[in-house]
Amino acid sequence: MKRDSRLSGVLHLLLHMAEADGPVTSEALAGMMQTNPVVIRRILGGLRKEGLVQSEKGHGGGWRLARDLESVTLYDIHLALGAPGVLALGNRTESPGCLVEQAVNAAMSDAFEAAEALLLERFHSITLASLSRDFSRRRKRNASTCDQHRH
């Protein structure tokens, strides 16, 4: 089953940007994420439209956060990514003719909706600042063995 890892990847990028002293180039971020700079620019371009990041051109330019870490939630980022579905599970068919499958779909759909609502509600309470604090704690505990740019 294929999982959508865009939210996780974007959080990773944003935390690297939060740790930087200034703008970070697409090339540097691509190296951290082991991907192509074009992919980074495409992702961050979408976040720029939502006011989460900004870019600076020219020498010394790059990407930086546009908002305070405490004011950005996982929900904000989820919306900026187009509010993709958060569950990989689904019904076998959406409009079944079989009464058994209709009963299964009804039960499963209710459970999916409740689980998604709970997860999205939790996204409202997780900020980039809380993730940054967790990263800082982990870095201090592992200072001798962890390089923040090696995964």
From TrEMBL:
PROSITE patterns referenced in this protein's UniProt entry, alphabetically: HTH_RRF2_2
Endpoints of the signal sequence: none
Pfam family, one: Rrf2
InterPro entries: Tscrpt_reg_Rrf2 (IPR000944), WH-like_DNA-bd_sf (IPR036388), WH_DNA-bd_sf (IPR036390)
SUPFAM superfamilies given in the database record: Winged helix' DNA-binding domain
Segments passing through the bilayer: none
Record protein name field: Rrf2 family transcriptional regulator
